[in-house]
Design a protein that fits this description.
Structural class: alpha/beta
Number of strands: 12
CATH class of the largest domain: Alpha Beta
CATH architecture of the largest domain: 3-Layer(aba) Sandwich
Shape: globular
Radius of gyration: 20 Å
Number of helices: 13
Order of helices and strands: EHEEHEHEHEHHEEHEHEHHHEHHE
Distance between the termini: 49 Å
Largest sheet: 6 strands, mixed
Number of domains: 2
Helix content: 25-40%
Strand content: 5-15%
CATH topology of the largest domain: Rossmann fold
CATH superfamily of the largest domain: Nitrogenase molybdenum iron protein domain
Length: about 300
């Protein structure tokens, strides 16, 4: 097997390359690629165009201001790409907030002199797309058998959970919150994960982007379980932003609050990354929905009680 030089511009594809056992081929990454930790030694080829610090409302306003001008929220550094001379660049077009845009990558590649890399564009909208993207990356790297083996292993782990919940008598009504202010529910692969973990998903549809959610809609649904997993944030940051929810009139009266079933989860490391760790994401949800039947040891790292 030849050794192509790979630049991965999204965190999930970096995880895919590593899960395929090909981390040694990576020569560059995005500024968000941080898992496994050893990839942090690689030079990063992207930078954000706005300040990542601030409240959920402030960040939302900055992102919207950039996207209204039809610009990617991240910048790709053509000079760094030139120095790295990649053979393969992996990016995605599913979400402009998750990666540099395909247009930006193509423009940067046109400026390259030393190499003419192949661009592998991923577009994961639902769970089946994630498996297809793993195969697409594996095929591009000349390792199709590794891709098939990785997908089969992940599907087997997840199917074991889905089969176990089929015999459980309860399916709690669940709201997954992907952004706090303004409120946004989870979409894409998350509704599928909720159902596989033995929950009844209240908001968002499989294969469709995360929908905006009004406070009145959340109140009216009165979920039994609320999982707050903001995109790009860890548990500590989610906890810091929770007053935007807890100060809403009627928050304390929600069933999830009354029964102590509001949870904070690490959206950045797990749920928001369409890659191999969606298997761990499913395990986390199973622990939250059915704590008497599942224990994978993710509490304290992947999730905390509010």
């Amino acid at each position: 097997m030849s050794q192509p030089r790979i630049v991965s511009l999204i965190a999930s594809s970096t995880e895919i390359v590593c899960a395929l056992g090909l981390q040694a081929w990576l020569v560059g990454r995005s500024h968000e690629c941080d898992y496994p930790p050893s990839v942090r030694r690689l030079p990063h080829c992207t930078t954000p165009k706005f300040d990542l610090n601030g409240t959920s409302y402030q960040i939302d306003q900055r992102v919207k201001a950039i996207l209204q001008e039809a610009l990617s929220v991240y910048r790709v550094d053509a000079a760094v790409l030139e120095a790295l001379r990649p053979d393969v660049i992996i990016t995605q077009s599913q979400c402009q907030v998750c990666a540099v845009s395909l247009r930006d990558v193509e423009e940067a590649v046109c400026q390259l002199i030393s190499s003419r890399p192949r661009i592998v564009n991923l577009e994961p909208n639902e769970l089946a797309d994630v498996w297809a993207d793993i195969g697409r990356v594996a095929d591009a790297l000349g390792a199709p058998e590794r891709g098939r083996a990785l997908v089969a292993g992940l599907q087997e782990r997840m199917a074991a959970i889905a089969e176990k919940v089929l015999v459980l008598p309860e399916r709690p009504a669940v709201a997954c919150i992907e952004w706090i202010e303004p409120l946004m529910a989870s979409g894409n692969w998350m509704p599928q994960l909720v159902e596989m973990a033995g929950g009844h998903n209240l908001f968002g549809q499989a294969g469709r982007h995360a929908p905006w959610l009004s406070w009145e809609e959340l109140q009216a649904a009165d979920p039994e379980v609320i999982v707050v997993l903001p995109c790009g944030w860890d548990v500590a940051k989610a906890r810091q932003e929770m007053p935007a929810l807890t100060q809403r009139p009627g928050w304390a009266a929600l069933r999830a609050m009354q029964n102590g079933r509001v949870y904070l989860a690490d959206g950045n490391q797990y749920f928001n990354r369409p890659g191999p760790r969606l298997a761990e994401s499913l395990e986390i949800l199973a622990e939250l929905f059915h704590p008497h039947h599942f224990h994978f040891g993710h509490e304290g790292s992947g999730w905390e009680r509010f």
